[in-house]
Amino acid sequence: MNMAWIPYGLSPDTGTESTVYGWHYDAMDHYPVVIVGAGPVGLAAARDLGLQGIRSLVLDEDHQVSTGSRAICWSKRTLEIFDRLGCADPFMRKGVTWNTGKVFFGDRREPVYSFDLLPDKEQAFPAFVNLQQYYAETYLIEAVSRTPLAELHWQSRVCSVRQFPQHVEVEVDTPKGRYTVTADYVIAADGCRSRVRGMLGLEFTGEVFQDHFLIADIRMQAQRPAERWFWFDPPFARGQSALLHKQPDELWRLDFQLGWNIDREAELQPQRVANRVRRMLGEDVAFELEWTSIYTFQCRQLERFLHGRVIFAGDSAHLVSPFGARGANGGIQDADNLCWKLALVLKGVSPRALLETYDRERVLAARENVLHSSRSTDFITPKTAASRAFRDATLQLASHNPFIRRFVNSGRLSTPAHFPDSPLNATDSDVVEGALQPGSPATDAPCAEGWFLPHLHGGFACVVFDDTAQGVPAGVKLVRLPADGKLATDMGAVPGTCLLFRPDQHLLGRWHQFDAVRVRNALAHCLKGGTLA
Amino acid sequence: MSLRDPDAFYQALVRLHDGLDAEESQRLNARLILLLAAQIDDERVLHEVLRLTSDMPR
Prior knowledge:
The complex is a heterodimer of chains A (533) and B (58).
Chain A: E1 30-36, H1 40-51, E2 56-59, E3 73-75, H2 76-84, H3 88-94, E4 96-98, E5 100-105, E6 113-116, E7 128-130, H4 133-145, E8 150-153, E9 157-163, E10 168-174, E11 177-188, H5 195-199, E12 205-208, E13 213-219, E14 228-232, E15 241-246, E16 251-257, H6 264-267, H7 270-281, E17 288-295, E18 298-301, E19 306-307, E20 310-312, E21 318-319, H8 327-346, H9 353-380, H10 385-398, H11 402-405, E22 446-447, E23 450-451, E24 460-465, E25 476-481, H12 485-491, E26 498-501, E27 507-511, H13 516-527
Parallel strand pairs in A: 1-2, 1-11, 2-8, 5-14, 11-20, 24-25
Antiparallel strand pairs in A: 3-7, 4-7, 5-6, 9-10, 10-11, 12-18, 13-16, 13-17, 14-15, 15-16, 18-21, 19-20, 22-23, 24-26, 26-27
Chain B: H1 6-15, H2 22-40, H3 43-55
């Protein structure tokens, strides 16, 4: 990679300072893919495309990784994707693992309820790892720098995107002047205020919630468990909600609900914030304020993510309120869904119809994320007196009533989307009730040599249980496993069961017996874009 | 048709709201609805009741 970076300023360890990148490089004239935005989604896409032999150029208008307190909670599915990309290890080493959430109400010291987000512990990765976004980006940048086909240019602002029948022209503004680069496709991963989205004049519709939350990152030595704690109407914040997360470096992330009519400047006064913190954690707690900011939240999405040769992924395509950790995680899963399809199209193996399935599948996933996030937000910020009455009634009754307890909604935490009606799914799968279904992402389980999921890395995989199967199509990895243990139960596998997985580990088709013709047909069906061909 | 004394139940239901203002009544009704829903505990029936309610004129 022909980029030289100049680190100045402090490292991400101090929280708000970060490694600053200078730049000295020449851009080539043409790239198969230009990626706008070096946030988690753009970086993951560059790494993923590079692993599949596709050259890309990542452009970011900034000169450093993100600062402040942004994405924190990286879900199991995201970690599994990072593992496929070969960058999960630093997340696990540095990050804070957690599986348990607790919800508190009013004066009661005992939680209204606790939830375990990983009931099935026999998996390589936990439900969540908390890690500051600047660390996540740093680790992804390291992965990109190990990717020969990926280039990363800082201080490069995209000022125009023009589409032609066979290519896209991207004009880039840098401190040393403007230049134009062409691409076969552009991935717009430039975040919630996406310039590319604006350039294309696209409507970004949804709703804004009339509320504010104060974020405070504090540095504190505390022997508290790594659990997500959410409070409704606590003594330290009557009539409002609060949230607490543990992060690395003894940093704790606190969120305080403020309401709609607030004095922003007053609320951000360090003394005022410190008072809130002391009321929450105790008068004699020692802490330092590292970061404060106030945010509002909204749920929005584009109607389509695919616009000619411009593809939207992450916050540029969809926005959610943060309570379900579906923002960054949704975006990473966009990239996971997109890159193998884009690679096949660029290699001339698949027609554009395969890219249409990205739009079809991820628009659906985004709708699901928006739905869950909106419901959580309505519970946390009821919009009407009636809504508030039901919300409060739920909280009052939840402790003693298991039926009502399930209505308590402080955030439905991110789970991967399933695509049972995906156009790509094989049309002749054998039905097995209660087992992994076509369109669903593979779940992990212990395996003879470690864990199951890594067996699926690297492309299409045909998993056969206890069989001497021969004759998988070219380009498909054959994985033979014994039909025993938790893996077989999860997969609904008996001796002979055959499962064909996509490169993003979603199941394409399943059959009681391996049949080379069926596997070949299912693969061909997928490669041509399925029923969208 | 299981109530032996319908009037007694009806009176008890209305009496629940004695001394409450409009907002307090709304909040009590919310608790009552949730508790009754918990007793019914049948998704199809619950949605059917919601549908019947919303189909009526205000």
